[in-house]
Amino acid sequence: MAELSTIARPYAQAAFDVAKAENALPAWNEFLSAASAVAQNDEIRQLASNPSINVDQLNGVLTAAIKPTTDGMRNFLSAVVQADRVDALPAVFEAFVAHKHAFEGSADALIVSAFPLDVAQVQELKTALEQKLGKKLNPTVSVDSSLIGGFCVTVGDEVLDMSVRAKLARMQSALMA
User: Fold this and answer.
1) Residue 138 carries which DSSP code?
2) Tens of pLDDT along the chain (177 residues)?
3) Which residue windows are transmembrane per the record (predicted)?
């Protein structure tokens, strides 16, 4: 079977194109987020793989659970169900978010700090990272005391590790060489 990300790509592109044409990127983002969450539910996965459930029944259950607000969303959901690709909805959402971020010139940033950061510190770090990376960031902050001190930022596939733990590891590696 093909990778879910490969299957999801054309669906995400179609959803993005419709969302952009409707000038409704936030609404489609919310719809696909809900669809992704519903598709990951164990009961829904069992229902989707049950051969005694027909396409119309499954589409009705998903429509009731996700509550699409436009005809485009309902048609999209129906197309996914008819193609038996409900399992790909989480990957569709991820790919859609990537298209949305590329279009907006933004990215999600995961900031992991050794200690809790206040709003001003997060804003200062966000501003510095936006200047360095040249894109608007949507930060998510968490705390990991195993970093000892400092922080680690992940934006896409880029990682900036300024933690004390990483510095100690680099120092140990240099001393062992």
Assistant:
1) E
2) 468 889 999 999 999 999 999 999 999 999 999 999 999 999 999 999 999 999 999 999 999 999 999 999 999 999 999 999 999 999 999 999 999 998 998 999 999 999 999 999 999 999 999 999 889 999 999 999 999 999 999 998 889 999 999 999 999 999 997
3) none
Distance CA 96, CA 90 (A): 10
As assigned by CATH, the class of the 4-102 domain is mainly alpha
C-alpha span between 143 and 107 (Å, rounded) = 20
Domain chopping of the chain, boundaries: 4-102, 105-176
Q: Which CATH class is domain 105-176?
A: alpha beta
Hey, what are 85's tokens?
A: 């690709």
CB 52 within 8 A of CB 91: no
